[in-house]
Amino acid sequence: MVVRACGAATTSYPNRDAFASRYVHRFLEELLVSIRNGLEESRERLVALTLLLQSASRQRPLTQETIVSELMIDEYPVRASGPRKIRAYQGGETAIRQKFERDKAKIRELGMQIETLALDDGSVGYWIEADSVYAPALAFSEEERRVVRVALRLCGVGGSGAFSLFDEGPAPEGGIELSHYLNPVVRALRLNRVLTFDYQSSANKTRTVDPLAIRVLNGATYLVARVHGSSEVKGYRISRMTSMPVTQTGTFEPDDETREIASAWRPEFARTPKPVDVVVTTNTNYALLLTRQYPQALAAQKKGGIVEVGLSFDNLREALRFVVNAGSRVRLVSPKLLKSEVGAWLGAVNRGDVPRMDDVSFEPLTTTDALGQALQLLHAVHLADGGLRISELARRFNLSADVVRHVMDRLVSFEPMHGRYGFPAHVIKECDDWENEVEDDSLYRAEYGGYGDETELATLTWRELFELNIALREAARIYDAPVIREVIDKIESAIGRQVGVESTSAESMLEVVRSAIESGERIKMRYTPGTAEEAQERTIEPRAIGVLNGHAYVRAFCLTRNAWRTFRIDRINDVVAKSPVDEVRPDDPVVNWLTAVGESGSDVVVVVEAPLRWIFEPLPNAQWHPLADGRHAVRFRVSDPAFLDHLMVQAGPGAVVVTPAFADAGRELARRMRSAL
User: Is residue 149 domain-resident?
Assistant: First the structure.
């Protein structure tokens, strides 16, 4: 019997294999459906819980028992003509509690602070204060909204930021660091409230601080704060925070001296700076760029085409940074102390303990979470005058129409929020063809309840107002329009005026480039690439300007190279000729040209000491991983080895390349610079 069974199985093996293949395929399909249903149920529950907690208050908090008994969501999978309602939280007491705690943690990860209150019966009440998420409502006129859209196109934050709330999209990759951590930071700054958060420096530690200002330096965002209970003022880069900042009940009132120190803070800040006068020699071309970059610099022509340039810096470290950043394009003349410091710095470039590549790993890039995605779609509909169609939402947020339709149809059934500033939550769906609803480009709009004003009131989060503020400040460098300043003043009246934006770039050619774009002109220019000593002549047709990491760039069709290229505006020496554009160019093949530099070239891994992270953090698409010895590994792409050479010289002691193919990066450049001292 067994033999016959085995024989039958052997002779019919191909059929059995086909059956097994179909079985595995069906199993995988059912597994994917199960996972998808679980994700949909989780999204439904999280969004419903978020809106429910926003409708509560200190006077009417919600207990876990109330939420478990009353919160209903759609059942998945849908087995009838439409989903039926079921309890959001089911199961035993322990399972419900664990799921509830996980959901609260995910809500907090989006910057929403869930408040708690011990009630008389021993239970705990929960709610989300409206002003912990949303800033006071602002009225933007149509002209102001137009200016905001222009600013966000120049310096946006992509589909997860403010861009998609104002512009039809699709959203570009912008030049502002996007972080949900900014929401409680901006609010605490406005209210003078103490903040607590975990922060990764040499070690990951909890910090408690008195927030004083936000400094955006070369595109990097820092919270400048006083260490709580002391007089020490420090800077904390937002991207290094490892937990959602929590606003404490305590308040503080800084004195004028402390605020002055905060406004003067820089990375590698020196509390009592001692000015250092520096003299270097260089060629005529680079001297021109230096005098443009440092308006107080003095230049004197010497024999043989050599130019001597004198500059003054706040302290020795700042002077050292200038010399190493200039690379071989300058020769340091004085002072002697700086020569000694630079020599020691260059001697240690890319030398130190190098871990094995196998010991360095990186977390996968995170994708948009279900809760954040749904709330962002909801938010966009609330802010849109007249609502948004499925096709518009799909384009803005780079989603499929099916995903948008599915998420928005669920949001239609939710009850309104009743926040302090009247932020609406009820969504109405309008179909042109109800009989063909699954393919109709339906419109979703919010019921506001009437403000009695023709101008729409924009209820934005604290973070979104901060993003608008920075984008408008960048736009003010390019466009001379009084309305930009008016909108900035309006925003800062809501979030406070403790935000400072600074760029080390001297972009005197910005107006020339902008004018060429608006007038449809081509320009012939003299341009000095990043590591070059001499200028090159290029003829370009500028098409768009963008700002990344504090530097303005222009995207243009380069007639010299007969291809689309990106140029940094502060490296344009001068424009020698202009003429009208008289030809049609091929479309630009790169959509997000501003950050394309981080998507091409070779992978490089560098290990750096914690205080040097700020040098590598502006690199587009950089990934980080903390090591057990307190150092940090960073992975990024390099298309030009000369760029990596200069980067390692800038980093100096405390940075080593792990990737074997680039193990000697920076050493030869450092040797040449050292021999010229």
Answer: no
Long-range contacts of 484-493 (CB under 8 A, 24+ apart): 484/147, 484/151, 486/144, 487/140, 487/144, 487/147, 487/148, 490/138, 490/140, 490/144, 491/138, 491/465
Predicted confidence (pLDDT) per residue in 165-201, tens digit:
777 666 565 566 678 888 899 999 998 999 999 998 7
CA distance 246 to 244: 6
- 106 and 7, same structural domain? yes
Rounded CA-CA distance 546/172 in Å is 10
With respect to residue 676, please indicate whether it lies within any of the assigned structural domains: no
* Residues forming beta bridges with residue 283, ordered by sequence position: 306
The residue among 112, 128, 144 that closes a domain is: 128
What is the three-class DSSP state of 573? strand
Rounded CA-CA distance 264/266 in Å is 7
Looking at the structure of the chain, the number of domains it has is 3
Q: Is the pLDDT of residue 6 over 60?
A: no
Q: Kindly write down the DSSP assignment for every residue of 163-188, as one continuous string.
A: HHHHS-SPPPP-SS---TTHHHHHHH
End position of a domain, from candidates 590, 620, 647: 590
Contact partners, residue 631, CB within 8 Å, separation at least 6: 607, 608, 609, 610
Tokens describing residue 184: 């409680």
DSSP string, 336-352: HHHHHHHHHHHHTTT-S
The answer to the question of residue 520 being in a domain is yes
Measuring CA to CA, how many Å separate 417 from each of 111, 116, 464, 588?
18, 19, 20, 44
Helix (H, G, I), strand (E, B) or coil at 544: strand
> Residues 28-71: pLDDT tens digits?
344 334 434 556 677 778 888 888 888 788 888 889 988 888 78
The residue written with tokens 């290990």 in the block is: 607
The residues pairing with 656 across neighbouring beta strands, listed in sequence order, are: 607
Q: Are 370 and 345 in contact (CB under 8 A)?
A: no
Instruction: Check residue 12 and report its DSSP letter.
Output: T
CB 349 within 8 A of CB 648: yes
Residues 615-624 as b or e (16 or more Cβ within 10 Å = b):
bbbbbbebeb
Which pLDDT tens digit goes with each residue over 600-644? 678 899 999 887 887 887 777 788 888 888 888 999 888 788 889
What span, in angstroms and rounded, lies between the C-alpha atoms of 328 and 671? 10
Q: What is the pLDDT of residues 482-510, one digit of tens each?
A: 998 999 999 998 888 888 877 666 677 88
- Assess if residue 264 is contained within a domain: no
Same-domain status, 104 and 31: yes
What is the residue range of 441's domain?
386-455
Segment holding 248, helix H or strand E: strand 246-251
Tokens linked to 423 = 């932020």
pTM: 0.70
Tokens 């009131």 belong to residue: 457
